[in-house]
Amino acid sequence: MSRFSTLCLCLLLPVMATGGTAHASNNPQMDAQVMRINNEWARIKYQVRDKGDQYAQLDKLAQQAAAVVAKYPGRAEPLLWQGIVTSEEAAQASVFRQLGLASSARDILEKARAIDPRAANGGVAMSLGVLYYKVPGFPLGFGSAGKAQSYLKAALAQDPDGLDANFFYADYLMSKGDDASARAYLARALKAAPDANRPIWDAGRRAEARAMLGKLDRQARR
């Protein structure tokens, strides 16, 4: 991989994982195990500051997520969270491993989509959308603005008032220079109902949304 390629990956891969959405299925045992992966991901992402520690803990969590997938074959929810953890791992990996991990995350999420494209109230579509706009396009990677927008809009259609769905569509719009629309979706994200079952994720994502609004304000004043 060239120095230019690795630079592109460094710039585009951070803050890639979505966090998905947490909704009960018809299997309470599976839901509890998926929620443990969910909450541990949030703790690592938002509370572990050292990048090396983050990567090591994410690698361990990815193995735990894979074990849940193996325990519940044919279910989309565990695959979604294995894909999310792998996406976050890609964001924290060395430049030599980033694209490989991002490709693995995409393949895992595509398996989840094939099982149930509407799983987790749009979480699968949203996670794929984020990957497709964060990863560089050809010839450096598999990124695609068209696929990203399609997946992100599908996620919004399922969860129009959701924190993540609106936050990531706003982020996508900012990446395309549509700051006015991005601001509107960030406002919708911050109006989402708080999730008492996922307090670390909820607080962390809202902080990111407010930071993004602050960035838009600074750009508008220039």
From TrEMBL:
Name assigned to this protein: Tetratricopeptide repeat protein
Classification via InterPro entries: TPR-like_helical_dom_sf
Origin species: Sphingobium cyanobacteriorum
The keyword Ribosomal protein belongs to this UniProt entry's keyword annotation: no
Signal peptide range in chain numbering: 1-24
Highest taxon above the source species: Bacteria
Protein keywords: Signal
